[in-house]
Amino acid sequence: MEQALKMRADTSNASDFKNPIVSAKNVDVFYGNKQALFDISLDFPANQVTSLIGPSGCGKTTFLKCINRMNDLISTCKIEGNIEIEGQDIYANSVDVVALRAHVGMVFQKPNPFPKSIFENVAYGLRIHGLTNSKTELADRVENSLQKAALWDEVCDRLDEPGTSLSGGQQQRLCIARTIAIQPKIILMDEPASALDPIATAKIEELIDELKTNYTIIIVTHSMQQAARVSQYTAFFHLGELVEHGKTKTIFTTPKDERTKNYVTGRIG
Amino acid sequence: MNRHFSVRSKHLATRHRFEVIFKWFGRISIFLALGFLVLMLAIIANMGAGALQQTRIALDVPLLQEGFDINYLDEADYDGLIKSALRQRFPDATSRSQKRQLNNLLSIEAPFTLKKYVLKNPDTIGSTARLWFIASDDVDLFFKGSIELAPEGNAGRLISEAVAWVNELKAAQAIKTVFNFNFFTGGDSREPELAGIFSALVGTALSLLICLAISFPIGVLSAIYLEEFVAKNRWSDFVEINITNLAAVPSIVFGILGLTIFINGFGLPRSSPLVGGMVLALMTLPTIIIASRAALRSVPISIRHAAIGLGATPIQTIFHHVTPLAMPAMLTGAIIGMARALGETAPLLMIGMVAFIVDVPDSIFSPATALPVQIFLWADSPERAFLEKASAAIIVLVVFLIIMNLSAIILRQKFQKKFCKNNF
Amino acid sequence: MNIKTAGFLKNSFSSRNRLREKAIYIILIASSLVAVGTTAGIILSLVFEAARFFTLVPITDFLFGLNWSPQTAIRADQIGSSGSFGALPLITGTLLISAIAMFVAAPLGLAAAIYLSEYASASQRSIIKPLLEILAGIPSVVYGFFAALVIAPFIRMSGSGFGLEIASQSALAAGLAMGIMIVPLISSLSDDVINAVPTALKDASLGMGATRSETIIHIILPGASSGIAGSMLLAASTAIGETMIVVMAAGLAANLTANPLDAVTTITAQIVALLTGDQEFDSAKTLSAFALGLLLFCVTLALNSIAHKIVKNYRVKYE
Question: Which of A201, B15, B218, B273 is deepest in the core (most CB within 10 A)?
Answer without folding.
Answer: B273
